[in-house]
Hints:
Blueprint: E1 17-19, E2 24-27, E3 32-38, E4 44-50, E5 53-62, E6 66-71, E7 80-88, E8 91-94, E9 98-103, E10 106-109, E11 114-117, E12 122-129, E13 135-140, E14 144-145, E15 151-156, E16 159-166, E17 175-183, E18 186-189, E19 193-198, E20 201-204, E21 222-224
Amino acid sequence: MPAANWFVESIVGLPVFASQPQSLTNYASSNVTFTVTTYSGTPLSYQWLKNGLPYASGQSVSAAQSISLTLTNILGADTAGYSIVLSNSSGSATSSVANLTVIDPWAFTQPVSLSRTASQSAAMTLGVFGATPFGFQWLQNGTNVIAPAYASTTQVGKQTLSTLSLTNLSGANAGTYQAIATNVWGSVTSSIAMLTIADPYISTNPASQSVRGGANVTLSVLPSALNR
């Protein structure tokens, strides 16, 4: 048969997934990537979906067998089910849904235990990542609510820091301290830090002396404590 009479029939089937996107759990401010692979060598159009709706990244065309969606600096608002629709001339196929769980907020800096003497100062800090704004509440001994005036909040890049500052310490300030950070997506409670106060304490110790035998000698100490 003459070669001129030959013909090639091309059959393109529905897109087929070789792998599905996988569910993920990540911390706020991190990056995540969902990936699918296909058997098709034909250029595909594809659309990522978030909770079943077209994702803002829009529709694209790819001849690659691996297609990925990367989300950066994720927050609680990114918690959702993600899937992808692949399409070619024969029709379309939708992947399984991969669920993204975002831990928002989470603590990266915990308050540290301290030892002080009466009349000194102390500061403790809780640092968190997550969606702003945050509300902070510091507690002493688990139940005593500390007035917000004793704490300050600062923003450093993606980090939110709450610092508790206590001055002119006395024995009444001794105990355990922890903080609770809250945003629209939830809350996180810090680890417990212990504040130890030496009250009263010796501010001046007795001085060494040299005297003749039979002479009188006076040794003295100066205790310090806050008036109550």
